[in-house]
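step=predict obj=Glycoprotease 1 n=372
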Amino acid sequence: VLVLGIETSCDDTAAAVVRGNGEILSQVVSSQADLLARYGGVAPKMAEEAHALVIDKVVQQALDNANLTEKELSAVAVTIGPGLSLCLRVGVSKARRIAGMFRLPIVGVHHMEAHALVARLVQRDLQFPFLGLLISGGHNLLILAQSLGNYVQLGTTIDDAIGEAYDKTARWLGLDMRKGGGPALEELAREGDANSIKFSIPMRQHKDCNFSYAGLKTQVRMAIESRNLCVDDVPLSAATFDDRKLRADIAASFQRVAVLHLEERCQRAIEWALKIEPSIKCLVVSGGVASNQYVRCRLNHIVEENGLKLVCPPPSLCTDNGVMIAWTGIEHFRLGRYDPPPPPDEAEDAQLDLRPRWPLGEEYSEGRSVAR
Ligand code: ATP
Ligand code: FE
């Protein structure tokens, strides 16, 4: 089996070719980090144009690097949601054009399922059921993966995701956003004292597995503004030598509490999950924020204390990529879960397949039983 994966749900245009045995034949990512740094966020129309500009090149590069032509593929996998529909459409149109022209089946992939399942490419003996923590720019999910395509959502964010909090904090601190807010903040936090500023841990009175990062974001913004580093969303000066220590202290203090919130929710989720599926052995942590070393290290402690194992893909497979889409395509393709090639005259009509809002699984609340 040979599958081409295409990803355009947010701000990265990515494509990859993966073999059924997990071998990655190529992996191409074109990032809009420069646009993001300039405008401070994703503007859908601008992101769509950026995808449209590079999609053909990115896909061609993925095929060239794999030394393949479309004819040799078994299927095309493409993210159909969740995400910005303008952006998703660029990838889905491309996938449908290829599938229509070369008579290939299409697998429509859930972006967050792909973040989770790529762990099974990295760790080939990772079996269902497993627990998953998916942390990225737009999502904060705790899921119990029972079998392929069958997920129970133990927790989600009631407002912002942790990646959004990293990005905003980095911006308010005036960090260089071109390499991404998260990585810049992680780097600066290494120089800071994580106990210097007291932020409160979110949601402690709620004994569930949900997340909230809006309140922490506000606390951090007030801390930054009260120290005159930022006013009205605009950082006042670039990180100069003089106040670098102060910025680092804020970064480290933010990171400590942001991750403590993850730790507390994971601890509870492990307890919940073991009640539902006592055979669970692994916690998979994936999504852009999972490339953070501090996050990985702290979560590893929690997981080991509970006698489980942490599975965390390498950073290039944690942030958005085409490999995870191709791999999830392979998993579904094997079970016969795919669409036939689109008729050539309808191939462009991407609207047919899009699912911009698409929950990953049924919500769980403690006490309610879950079908097995
Ligand atoms: P989603 O998956 O929710 O649709 P997305 O696709 O934009 O969002 P990903 O590429 O999976 O997100 O993750 C991007 C997020 O990960 C950004 O918020 C980014 O700041 C964050 N991130 C990346 N690297 C790090 C890091 N080292 N530390 C903290 N955050 C990071
Ligand atoms: Fe993502």
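step=describe
The mean pLDDT is 94.
step=end
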